[in-house]
Amino acid sequence: MRATTRRRAPTCARRSAEPAAAAFYNGHLFAPLACHPPRTVMSDPDPATADPCPQAPQPPLPSDCCNSGCPLCVHDLYNDEVARYRQALAAWRLRHPEADPGA
Fold it and tell me: What is the rounded CA–CA span in Å between residue 22 and residue 29?
C-alpha cells in the first residue's frame, strides 16, 4: 500500500507577519480579513463575583429517602455535601477576612 500524505491548509503561523494592505475593487475599499478576531480586553472583574461565597446545599426532601436502608442514602450524600460546604466556606473566609461573618 502506498502511504498518502495530506496537504495541510496554511495556518496563521505560516502567513506573513506583515498585515495585508486594503484593496480597492470596483471603487470600494475592502479591508483585509483578519486571521483571528481582535481580542477584547475585559476590565477587572468585581471581586464579589470573581470569588463568590459558597452556597449551602439544600437538604433532601422527606420523599427523597425510601427508608429501605440503602448503603448510600440521600441523607449520607447530604451530610457529605454539608462537610464539603463547611470546608469551602472556611477557605473562602480565609481568602475574604473583610467579609461579614454571617455571609
Answer: 7
Lookup: cell for 99:
467579609
Contact 54, 88 (CB under 8 A): yes
Q: How many structural domains does the chain have?
A: 1
| Residue 39 belongs to some domain of the structure | no
**Is 50 inside a domain boundary?**
no
83 CA to centre of own chain: 25
Cα 22–chain centre separation:
37
pTM over 0.70: no
pLDDT per residue as tens, the chain (103 positions)? 566 666 655 555 555 555 556 666 666 666 655 555 555 655 656 655 688 899 999 999 999 999 998 899 999 999 999 999 999 999 999 988 887 756 5
